[in-house]
Design brief:
This protein is of the alpha+beta class. The chain has two helices and nine strands. Strands 1, 2, 3, 4, 5, 6, 7, 8 and 9 form a nine-stranded mixed beta sheet that branches. A hairpin with a 5-residue loop joins strand 5 and strand 6. It is elongated.
Length: 136
């Protein structure tokens, strides 16, 4: 189930037609930041413990999608924040994405753009997207 949830959250970003065509670093997939200094997106899944909801073994699967926008230093925070806003707008509160095995994953609250920070050659801006899915 977790693979399906992660897959649908990825697909939403891949097929969005974003204004900046940045490469994406996915979990446990080899990635080299672009040499031309255009920046990239770090895609991370943070899972909460699944909770049993009933005697029928229904489970609440939830967590956070964390998109960390890495932009070259000295580009100004407005550019980073503008694109971070575009990323967060992909996942509005109550968005429901269908899962291949049935059911859906729902964005359970509005995404939050966190305070950016310097990391080596990049200015990183985290975008945190909470999600929830009920599975049988």
């Amino acid at each position: 189930m977790n693979d399906e949830i992660e897959g649908e959250l990825k697909n939403r970003m891949i097929h969005a037609g974003l204004s900046m065509d940045l490469p994406v670093a996915y979990p446990n997939v080899e990635f080299e930041p672009p040499a031309d200094g255009i920046g990239f997106i770090d895609f991370q899944m943070v899972w909460a413990d699944a909770r049993d909801l009933s005697l029928k073994s229904s489970k609440d699967v939830s967590g956070r999608l964390v998109l960390v926008l890495a932009m070259p230093l000295n580009g100004g925070t407005l550019k980073s924040l503008g694109f971070a806003k575009e990323l967060s707008d992909l996942y509005p509160k109550n968005l429901r994405l269908p899962l291949p095995s049935g059911g859906h994953v729902r964005i359970s609250n509005s995404p939050s753009i966190r305070t950016g920070y310097r990391d080596g050659l990049y200015w990183r801006t985290p975008i945190v997207v909470p999600f929830q899915s009920m599975v049988a």
